[in-house]
Amino acid sequence: MIDQATFDFIKEKYGYYSSWAVWVDATEKLKDNIGDLRIFDPTFNSGLLQQLNPNVILVGLNVSRGCIKVPLGNFHDPRPEGMDFKLRYALKDSPYWGAYITDIIKDFDELNSG
Description:
By secondary structure, the chain is an alpha+beta fold. The chain contains three helices and three strands, in the order αβαβαβ.
């Protein structure tokens, strides 16, 4: 768990490179709501700060789709071709739910990281 001031600081300073491993639940399709960033709004998600776990950090290689335009939007790709829903599925109900997520290489977008 973190406090609101720490959450706000991380969102402001690193929000275009990182996010947290929490997502709104899917409704009908596996990809439903993956880009719903209201999950980071304490008025929508009153348990937000209790869900976040700064003791676990998940690291990807680099962003795969250009510049992130919304803070905490990384790993929450709403596009139909996005695959971030797999993270939600893999991490749901695990000790890693709520982890901090970032890419190790910043400002270099490449879909094929091979």
